[in-house]
Amino acid sequence: MNIQGIDHFTIRTADLEASAVFYQRVLGLSDGPRPSFRFAGKWLYAGGRPVLHLVETAVDDAELEAYLGRRENRSGSGRVDHIALRGQNLVEMQMRLLSLGQDFHERVVPELGEHQLFIDDPDGVRIELIFPTRRQPDGRRPVAAAGHPELRPRRDQLSSPPPNDRYSAAIFSASARWAPTHCRRAACAVRCASSRLR
Predict the structure, then answer these.
(1) Structural domain boundaries of the chain?
(2) Which helix (H) or strand (E) holds 20?
(3) Which of 16, 26, 57, 154 is packed most tightly, with the most Cβ within 10 A?
(4) How distant, in Å, are the alpha carbons of 143, 149, 168 from that of 136?
(5) Is there a contact between 50 and 7 (Cβ–Cβ < 8 Å)?
(6) CATH code, 5-85
């Protein structure tokens, strides 16, 4: 896997407007486009890239909790939700995490063309790894193929990527806006992602 750099960082804020004004005035970031998530937030840009994602936590928001998970509101650096890194070779990273026994969960965001993996460091800092979704030659996103037992990895298959990369195709869905898995066990996280989307 090749980490290319930090993609963005996310801050949970009790006052969305005040935070947005602060980062725009102090750091010179600019307000820009944001996907149509079902919770309040803003994306602030630098150099044409959305480097800071702000999310409002002033209200009890079930949509935000479903998307980012529940966290206690703290002050200072405790409000930094996660660090996101952009990477290449999704399957290689999935296999690496599984072989290390590292728990993770994942989400596909078709609107952004992203497949995201989430892990926590030993101190509980959430790390997001972002990979581009693969497309078929005609430009459509891969669709999960049902009834293929080879798409379900066994422990003895985790040391090498599956043939023809069909395994990674199983975790995409053309119809899902985003498809999280809630499985936290490393041994079955990717398998659960593929079975949920069939």
Answers:
(1) 5-85, 88-196
(2) helix 16-27
(3) 57
(4) 9, 22, 12
(5) no
(6) 2.60.40
Token pair belonging to 167: 């395994």
Supply angle C-alpha 43, 83, 48, rounded to 5: 35
User: Per-residue confidence at 192, pLDDT binned at 50, 70, 90?
Assistant: very low
| SS3 of residue 181 by DSSP | coil
Fill in the DSSP letter of residue 139: S
pLDDT in tens, 105-159: 999 998 899 999 998 887 677 889 899 986 544 454 443 322 223 223 333 333 3
Q: Return phi, psi of residue 151, to 5°.
A: -80, -10
117-134 residues labelled b (16+ CB within 10 A) or e (exposed) = bbbeeeeeebebbbbebe
Split at pLDDT 50, 70, 90, the class of 73 is: low
Q: Which amino acid type is present at position 163?
A: P
